[in-house]
Amino acid sequence: MKATLGILLAAWTPLAAQTPVITAAPQARPGGIAPPPQPSETGKASIEGKVLDALTHNPIRKATVTLSGRTFLRAATDAEGHFAFRQLPNGQYLLQAQSDQYPVAPFSLELGSQASVTIAADEQASEVALTLKPGASVRGRIVDEEGSPLPQCTVSPMRYRAGDPGPTMVGGAATPSDEKGEYRIETIPAGKYYLVARCFQSIPMPHALVRRDAVAGLPRLTYPPRFYPSSSELAGAARVSLPPGGDLVGIDFQMAPATGITLRGRVRGVLSSGTAQIRLRPQNLALRPLQQQGGGANLGTGEFQIPNVRPGSYELLATAQVEGRSYIAKTAVEVGATAPEPIALVLEPAPQISGSVAIDGDPQVPFNNMRIMMNPLDGQALGPLPQAEVHSDGSFVINASPGHWRLQVNGAPGYVKSVMLGDQEVSATDLEIGPAPAALKIVIGTKNAQVEATITALPAGANAVSGMVWSAGGSEFQQSFGVNAQGKAMLSLPPGRYHACAIAVAQPSVLTNREFRKALEGHCQAVEVSEGDRTSIQIPFVPADEAKRLADSLDADDSQVL
After folding, report:
1. 352-445 sits in which CATH class?
2. CA distances from 470 to 19, 164, 389, 501 (A)
3. Which residue of 5, 147, 198, 359 sits 20 to 30 Å from the alpha carbon of 479, by its own alpha carbon?
4. Please, which residues have CB within 8 angstroms of residue 11's CB and are 6 or more apart in sequence?
5. Closest by Cα among 48, 62, 148 to 98
6. Are 103 and 193 in contact (CB under 8 A)?
7. Is the pLDDT of residue 174 over 50?
8. pTM for the predicted model, two decimal places
9. Dihedral of CA 540/545/548/554: which sign?
10. Cα(525)–Cα(523) distance, integer angstroms
């Protein structure tokens, strides 16, 4: 079926002007807890301007504009798109506009929505213009193999991003189809997407001479996820481009039925005194967001069943929490055209890791504010993420299921210098936990390298400039930093090898995008520092248009995901 593309222009009706609402908003501490409100500095300067639609240049009403710098304020735009911040002290400020009707794609580089403004003590900056790109929409119809409409199906825009240990899927907003099989998705951030339809209906397969008590166990016809235009696999899918304000119509799906069986089993162990969650997930990591299924086990008998399971290779997992202790069970399952025999899962205690933290060179540092956390590298964790508080003597106990983990120590006065698991030195970025209890020793280093960074070829009068530095190895260390009027900054870095550069944007949120960092490496300076170093480096300046080109090229490149 042919898809046609129309462009939606946002309509705007002039309304009576309203006074922007300005509120003080203290920045949140890590963990989401806001500090007590602090009195805002005042002065005689002001900053005002408008927020406009990037396509139509119409004003945007009720957009939020955030001002940060020597004071932190928020304003809501009036009917003319106007905002104002007054009684400001002199200094450099960052303005950021956002609106629910103008969504921003994750890791995108939207230069028009932010601005850096420097004002003198009595200056009135009144011509600041911020722009927002409107979202796109997709609509079409979902039918079954005979062309009949399928209601209550969903269509989701998806992006695959490289991650640990393989591609993962990032979903967008989904909407159910109606009784005509018609669906519509609105306010999708502009970009390129895979579109996938999912229907959750199932019907018993035709079968003669069925016992009355056996109906529930019959194989059923289900509808596997369908990628646009007509594929059950990502390899046969086509990405569709959604420009700002675009309305993509005629994106239709014809679903194909497949056999689904009911997987049965029983959980044994400590279930009578707790609860168990069952999860069936594909061995293929990229399919897990689409095909993961699960539920709970019967507390009395431990029995569970998972309906509508399609043929394939899976992991079957059970997790339980009993009196603060984690229990786990895991087994591989091959599902064919007929149901396998009931599966027995025996819950076992998650390995208990007894650990200690030591501070290199300063044993007097208190441990009470430190917390050990572990994030899985081989898929989703079985149950809650492992974490533990560090006691005053540096000891801790943490439960983690067997697998590969990334270790981090929150609240530490430095960096993870070394990790010993038993008598073996291991990496904090890939810590393999086995099935048996173990001892973990963590040493925190405090002798960061002090690095004076100078930006080369910095354009005169450039205000919106952010420095960026990130680890060139397996570590996930990354940091943004500001620069002074001379293009200089002081950095404190753990020992290691890094990439560093400056980029002509006020807030480089794309730094969290691993693919963008990889594309940027050729424009940056490599630097290696040792413990306690004091050194100077020259880092290159990347213009905004080049940074934008690199960010856009990632969205245009299919090879990164297929």
Report:
1. mainly beta
2. 43, 17, 28, 10
3. 359
4. none
5. 62
6. no
7. yes
8. 0.74
9. negative
10. 7
From the number of C-beta atoms within 10 Å of its C-beta (0-12, 13-18, 19+), residue 329 rates as buried
Which of 72-81, 138-147, 552-561 is least confident?
A: 552-561
List the structure tokens of 405: 């983990």
DSSP state of 474: S
CA distances from 494 to 484, 491, 532 (A): 23, 10, 9
Closest residue by Cα to residue 370 from 400, 433, 414: 414
- The 10s digit of each residue's pLDDT in 235-270 is 888 989 999 999 999 999 999 988 888 889 988 876
Alpha-carbon radius of gyration of the chain: 28
Instruction: Tell me how far apart the alpha carbons of residues 365 and 409 are, in angstroms, rounded to a whole number.
Output: 14
Q: Tell me how crowded residue 224 is: count the other CB atoms within 10 A of its CB.
A: 19
pLDDT given for residue 53 in this prediction: 95
For the chain, the average pLDDT equals 80
Q: Which CATH superfamily is domain 136-207+215-256 in?
A: Carboxypeptidase-like, regulatory domain (2.60.40.1120)
| pLDDT tens track for 417-472 | 999 999 999 999 889 988 888 999 999 998 999 999 998 887 766 666 788 899 88
The Cβ of residue 114 has, within 10 Å, a number of other Cβ atoms equal to 18
Residue 311, preceding peptide bond in cis (omega within 30° of 0) = no
Domain boundaries, the chain: 4-132, 136-207+215-256, 264-345, 352-445, 449-560
Q: What is the 3-state secondary structure (H, E, C) of 17-74?
A: CCCCEEEECCCCCCCCCCCCCCCCCCCCEEEEEEEEECCCCCECCCCEEEEECCCCEE
Between CA 517 and CA 156 the distance in angstroms is 27
Determine how many CB atoms are found less than 10 A away from the CB of residue 416.
19
E strand map for 403-545: 403-410, 415-421, 424-426, 431-433, 438-445, 449-455, 466-471, 478-481, 488-493, 496-503, 525-529, 534-539, 541-542
Identify the architecture of domain 264-345 in CATH: Sandwich (2.60)
As to burial, measured by CB atoms within 10 angstroms (0-12 exposed, 13-18 middle, 19+ buried), residue 400 is buried
Amino acid occupying residue 227? F
Residue type, 505: V
The separation between the first and the last C-alpha atoms of the chain, rounded to the nearest angstrom, is: 24
C-beta of residue 498 within 8 angstroms of C-beta of residue 472: yes
Give residues with Cβ within 8 angstroms of 57, minimum separation 6: none
